[in-house]
Amino acid sequence: MLAHKNSETIDIKAVTKQIHRTIVEDGLLDIMIGIALILSTFHLMGILSYFWILWVPIAVVLTQVVRRRFIYPRTGYVNFSLSAGQVASIFGLSIAVIALLTILLALIATGIGKPIKENWREILNLSLIAYTVLFFCFIAFQFNAPRWYMHGILMGGAFLLGRAFEAHGIVIALGIWIILVGTYVFLRFIQRFPIEPTEDASDVR
Amino acid sequence: MSANLANIELQPLTEIEKLVHEPARLMILATLHAVESADFLFVERQTGLTRGNLSSHMSKLEAAGYITITKEFVDKIPRTLLRITNDGRTALLTYVKHMQKVLDSVKTKN
């Protein structure tokens, strides 16, 4: 609930942040990301082909189906459409951050005597891992969802350890952990917000 | 205190729109400003207003052209969809700007 009932003014950014929190509040995104982690690891192990990418549109549809059935009747329907410009900005910013991270890591590699030409693949992988951590921390900050800081940091750690020891099980285990966290959050959410009678009182004037 | 009040910029207060200034309506507009659209239940939960209260304020905002109210059916269940208009956004942001001027003026004098 908004905390500005009797204040003289209102912090629009704080209100926006509080409302955007509803995107991650139900735990569904955690479950979808956990499954994506597991599927991508299977792909890296050669078990799945590039079909795992189909999980992205499936996850989007599945999230909407579950929200329609379980979430909207409890806390109401909300639409957070992004404009084409906003999507382009997010995409552009992501590319810029990855590029900056890659340049930074390339400079560090050169500094420690590792030639870029032979290590560019590793440098790019490390920059993508760093970007993943930053992305999740940004989501955690933007949506006021502290558990996403842990998701980001654990993902970074799991990817690094998985690559270092060629142990894909670490990322799979993390995927399972994130699914469990998401499921717990989802079940708690369902408990916290019981479905109330669906009488539409909006005609009361 | 009267000397302090004389130095505070109160002119913006006269420009504040009472329709937006009412806390319940301010919360409704702030909620809808953050989203593309939302239904009655979502706004009710976010603002903590009672159903009757929310409905009453919605009517006033709709009459002023600050929000649109659309009724639709989803899976045979009625849904009341609310959306802030461009005028509503402008009114909200103008209100915040004017209030901020007054509050900044009070803070600097203190």
Order of helices and strands of chain B: HHHHEHHEEH
Mean model confidence by pLDDT of chain A: 86
Helix content of chain A: over 70%
Distance, first to last CA of chain B: 10 Å
Give the N-to-C terminal Cα separation of chain A: 23 Å
How much of the sequence of chain B is in beta strands?
15-25%
Give the biggest beta sheet of chain B. 3 strands, antiparallel
Radius of gyration of chain A: 20 Å
**Counting H and I runs of at least 4 residues, what is the number of helices of chain B?**
7
Helix/strand class of chain A: mainly alpha
User: How many individual helices of chain A?
Assistant: 8
Unreliable sequence segments of chain A: 1-8
What's the number of extended β-strand segments of chain B?
Answer: 3
How much helicity do the residues of chain B have?
A: 55-70%
Overall shape of chain A: it is: globular
Shape of chain B: elongated
Beta strand % of chain A: under 5%
Instruction: Tell me the structural class of chain B.
Output: alpha+beta
Instruction: Let me know the average pLDDT of chain B.
Output: 86
Strand tally of chain A is 1
N-to-C SSE series of chain A? HHHHEHHHH
Task: Summarize the structure in words.
The complex is a heterodimer of chains A (205) and B (110). Chain A is mostly helical and 205 residues long. Chain A has helices spanning 12-20, 22-25, 28-44, 55-75, 84-111, 116-142, 147-165, 169-192; one strand spanning 78-79. Chain A is globular, with a radius of gyration of 20 Å. By secondary structure, chain B is an alpha+beta fold. Chain B has helices spanning 2-7, 11-14, 18-21, 23-33, 40-47, 51-63, 86-109; strands at residues 37-39, 67-74, 77-84. A three-stranded antiparallel sheet of chain B has the order 1-3-2. Chain B is elongated and about 60 Å long. Chain B starts with a helix and ends with a helix. The chains are: A mainly alpha (205), B alpha+beta (110). At the A-B interface, helix 1, helix 4 and strand 1 of A face helix 4, strand 1, helix 5, helix 6 and strand 2 of B. Strand 1 of chain A pairs antiparallel with strand 1 of chain B, so a sheet runs across the interface.
